[in-house]
Amino acid sequence: MGLRLTPYAATDLPDFAPLFRAIVADGESYAYPLGLSDGDIQDLWWDSDPAHTVTARDEHGRLVGSAKMSPNRPGRGAHIGTASFMVSADARGTGVGRALLDYVIDWHVRGGFSGIQFNAVVETNTAAVQLWRSVGFSIIGTVPGAFDSRRHGRVGLHVMFLPLPLQPLES
Predict the structure, then answer these.
(1) Domain for residue 171, yes or no?
(2) Which residues of 139-157 are buried (b: 16+ CB within 10 A; e: fewer)?
(3) Which residues contact 66 (CB under 8 A, 6 or more apart)?
(4) Looking at the 3D structure of the chain, how many domains does it have?
(5) Kind plus residue range of the DSSP H or E element containing 20
(6) What does the pLDDT read at residue 167?
(7) Which pTM was predicted?
(8) pLDDT below 50 — which residues of the chain?
(9) Nearest to 26 by CA among 110, 100, 87, 115
């Protein structure tokens, strides 16, 4: 797949908002409320510096995913990063998530972060859990019943962690 990752811009919102709404409506990975306006979506997904958001477009220019990354906490917690990912249902399993993950790790390494913490990975989102673990993330805890899955009922949310530094990817 010819994938192009670029910094998120306001012009991406018309393509990103439907993807965001579909993932939230699916009810399996994000606890965002339904019925958000485009402006609400923009405010939730596109943060200002020091955060960074990218989009993934396929060879036809179709937006197939996005990732946002930032320090996990401000001040004395800013040395640990975090990230969130969305990949369209029809692009899952094609390498989009892995490309976004590689970008996120490299961004954190280049930024001098000491680790990456994912605060709320739905335990039944097994493809994501497997992908995160494949690059070295560990589950450091699970909050039981913290997510109300549309298909599975109340399931746990994993806190996952990847220690850094790793070597930056070659440019």
Answers:
(1) no
(2) beeeeeeebebeeeeebbb
(3) 8, 12, 16, 19, 45, 53, 54, 55, 56, 85, 86, 100
(4) 1
(5) helix 13-26
(6) 63
(7) 0.92
(8) none
(9) 87
